[in-house]
Structure formats: structure tokens, C-alpha cells
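Batch job 17 of 40 flagged for manual review because the log was empty.
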Amino acid sequence: MTNERVNTVALIGTGFVGSSYAFAMVNQGIADELILIDLNEEKAMGDVMDLNHGKVFAPSPTKISYGTYGDCSQADIAVICAGANQKPGETRLDLVEKNLIIFQSIVSQVMASGFNGIFLVATNPVDILTYAVWKYSGLPKERVIGSGTILDTARFRYLLGDYFKVAPKNIHAYIIGEHGDSELPVYSSADVGGVPVLSVIQRDNDYSLEDLDQLFVSVRDAAYQIIQAKGATYYGIAMGLVRITKAILHNENAILTVSAHLDGEYGVKDVYIGVPAIINRSGIREVMELDLNSEEQEKFSQSAAVLRKIIEPHFSGSLK
């Protein structure tokens, strides 16, 4: 009798995002085992009980348990959702100082367990904190992934689908750059069912580039609106994290806009930033280089510069 491989995910942080991720993971039956880790033991144990009670309705019997950092030794993926939350009026970059301290503690304890899997980071500012996890862990860059602009891209596709009255799954368009105020839409490679968006606009007077720019503003500022309305964003990003998790565990070679380390791609070096990348069981197999026009390239370079300016004071000894 041979032992079957068990796909194990350790979730660190069971706040709004973490618990939404766990709920979506169980409902989609993505992993065989899900370990919940949180400083608030009582809350995490309550989540474990609650999720287990719903397993009879789930597509597969995920083993759900409360654990400690020591349990990360057996995990294929460690998903970090812990950290200080973005408050109304705060930008994602305002969270840097608080969360770097928290992350150094988390990553050191995960690595001390003997963890040898893939880190998936969701906490904001995600590009900075993914870079920090890479540095603190010592793991290869392809095995440290941030959620990047996966949610921004999903928001963009949703709004474009609504605008063109086409299912979002038939829209191919990317938001790249910082998961934050300096991100940008890539109109030059966006298409509706294979037809370039810019061509659709040129031949149909019902559509305009000005409308697209307004859609992008709605994408960029969506988090602020949701935070103002209900205090935090969690459903959308949780579903995005599950999508990345599935691509890893199922070895999909799926192209997703994640926070990946660049080493010369797009003319940028030594920064984690949102770009399309091929995701499989080894993590980031390859960064996809979109053919940006000159305006898009300039905006992307500026976005990378914003992130490097934040990173430099903390990791100056290792920056190239």
C-alpha cells in the first residue's frame, strides 16, 4: 500500500481575510488538510469548529485543525493573512512599519519548523511584505508569492465585462504594478473575446477611452470605498488567494497577476510587484512580459520606483 500525497495548507491569521479564505478553501475542496494558526487561539479554534460543522455540505472532506507554527513543517503552502489592517483614510503603504515587525516574527517561526514549501502573502502592503518574506525566509524567489494585483485585475475584468456586456471570463485584461495607488491598466493588450479593447472603442461610438479611464479609477479606489462602507475587504481577495492556491497545488501552469520578484523583466530589478506570471507546483515558473507601450512602461517603472523607495531603508544592504 502506497501513501498518497496529502496537500496541506497552513493559514496564518484568521481575521476577516484569513477566515474568508478558509471558508472558500473548504467550499471549493482545494486542499486535503487546512491548518489554522492565530495568536487568538480561541477565535481560531472557533473557526475550526464552525468549518468542520459545515463539512457535510462541502465537495470533499478537508481535514481542518487548529495548529501552531511547528505544524508548518508539513505544509506545502503557508498563507500569511496576519497583520495590522488598513483603516479608513490609510493607504496600504501606511502599514509598512507595523507589519514588517509582525512578519519578521512570523517568518522566523515558520522557518524554524523546517518549512520547505511556498509562501503566499496577502497582507498589505503586499508587495513590500512579500519582498520581506523572501528576505526573512531565505527561500528562492519563485517560492515566495504575493497576491499582487490579482484582485485589481479581477475588479477590472468585472467592470469591463459590465461595460461591454460580456461575461468577465471572456475579458482578458491586466492591472499591473504596485497593489496600490500607483498601479496601472494595460489597455494595449486588453481584449474582449480576442478583439483588442482599443479596436472595439475605435469602431463603436458607444464606447470611449475616457470611460475606460473612469473604470480604472473605480478599480484603483475600490478598496477605499469598501473599507469606508464595511470596514475591510475580504471576500474578493480571499477568492483570489484560493485561485492562486489551486494553481499551485494542482500544478496548473495558470497565468495570474501576482506579486513576483523581477530581475530585469520590464527593465526592473530587485523588487516584488504585480505582473502576470505562470504559477505551478514549484511556485512562479516564469514571469510573463507584456508588450507595454511607452506610456505604460513609464508608469510601470514609476510604480516600481515607489516600492523600491519604501524597501530601501529596510533592506538597503541587499538591494542591487
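Reviewer: the log was empty due to a logging misconfiguration, but the result itself is present. The mean pLDDT is 94. Unflagging and moving on to job 18.
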